[in-house]
Structures are given as structure tokens and as C-alpha cells.
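Milestone 3.1: sequence recovery, worked example.
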């Protein structure tokens, strides 16, 4: 009476099958997490590459009048190529537009980059301001516009988060408006980008 056909080995088989299913589920979840991390890494690299392209293509407009802000010492021209490896290939890409797009007295620091889009707007129409500032998370930046040869503060609060920043602005001053972002704590400014207000 105690021996029923197939009664003994089934619980062991069920336990083994259950353990196998649990193991497969854990392996599948681990695989999904690894693939997700790899995809996130690729997206981050693509985003950094995109910012690198914007750094070389973001300069719009011709020379801008020189402002009376004092120039930095010779260290900015020597240290960027020595301190950052990723910026070393960029001089070859930025050499052609450099003579016409960058004001001679304001060299572009490699760490603080400004991009504006669109660069042609109607009076009062908002435009997007974004950029990169590696290693300066939490820093407050000041948007500035060139007015009669002097950089005037613009009413925008900008905070660097994860090496990037973004905000919007608008202008009703017709003609070419030249903008930059300024880090007062480090006395460092970005490249200048011009916006045509129609």
C-alpha cells in the first residue's frame, strides 16, 4: 500500500526542475542588466561625441568686438593640451574656423563649451542654450550678452549637472546678439555664439 507507482521520485524531479528554472531566471535577469549597462555606456559615449562635434561646429558668426575683461595668463594656452587627453585631436578640426569665428583676445577654454539653437529667431522668440563643463558639477554659470563692448549679465540661472547645462533665453534686441556663459568662481568663460534676432 505504501508503494504507489511514480510516487517517490516526483518531488525530487520537481525540486530539480524548480531549481533549474530559478537558475535560468537569475541568469536571464543578469544578462538583461549587463546589456542595459552596455547600452547606457554606448549612449553616454555617443552623447559625449555629439558634444564634441558641437564644440567644433557651434561657433556661429564673425568676429565679435573685444571686451575689456582681462585676459588670463599664458597657462590656458599651454595647459589644455597637457591636462586633457580627449581634447588633443580637436585642434586639427577647429583650426580652419578659428581665425574668423573666435575673438582674438578670448581663447576658448576646452572645458566650458556653449551651443545655441536656433541661431536665427524672431524678436522675443526663445532659443535653446546648452553646453558642457566637465568636472564642474554644481557650479553656477551666468549667461552674458555683449552690449556696447561690455559683457552684461542676462537673467538666467544655470547650474552644471553631470558635466552639462541647459536653459532657454529670448531677446528683443534686433540684429546680431553675441552670447557666452561665464563661471565667476573660476574666472572662465565659454566660446561666443551669435544669435540673429529679426
Amino acid at each position: 500500500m505504501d508503494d504507489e507507482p511514480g510516487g517517490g521520485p516526483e518531488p525530487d524531479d520537481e525540486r530539480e526542475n524548480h531549481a533549474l528554472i530559478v537558475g535560468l531566471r537569475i541568469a536571464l535577469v543578469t544578462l538583461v542588466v549587463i546589456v542595459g549597462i552596455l547600452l547606457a555606456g554606448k549612449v553616454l559615449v555617443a552623447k559625449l561625441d555629439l558634444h564634441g562635434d558641437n564644440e567644433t561646429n557651434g561657433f556661429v558668426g564673425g568676429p565679435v568686438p573685444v571686451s575689456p575683461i582681462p585676459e588670463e595668463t599664458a597657462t590656458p594656452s599651454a595647459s589644455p593640451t597637457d591636462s586633457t587627453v580627449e581634447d588633443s585631436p580637436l585642434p586639427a578640426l577647429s583650426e580652419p574656423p578659428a581665425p574668423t569665428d573666435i575673438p582674438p583676445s578670448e581663447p576658448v577654454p576646452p572645458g566650458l563649451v556653449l551651443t545655441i539653437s536656433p541661431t536665427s529667431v524672431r524678436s522675443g522668440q526663445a532659443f535653446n542654450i546648452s553646453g558642457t563643463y566637465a568636472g564642474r558639477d554644481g557650479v553656477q554659470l551666468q549667461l552674458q550678452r555683449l552690449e556696447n563692448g561690455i559683457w552684461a549679465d542676462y537673467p538666467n540661472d544655470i547650474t552644471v549637472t553631470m558635466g552639462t547645462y541647459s536653459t532657454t533665453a529670448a531677446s528683443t534686441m534686433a540684429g546680431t546678439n553675441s552670447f557666452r556663459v561665464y563661471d565667476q568662481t573660476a574666472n572662465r568663460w565659454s566660446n561666443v555664439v551669435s544669435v540673429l534676432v529679426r
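Confidence is low (pLDDT under 50) at residues 53-62, 73-85, 90-105. The radius of gyration is 28 Å.
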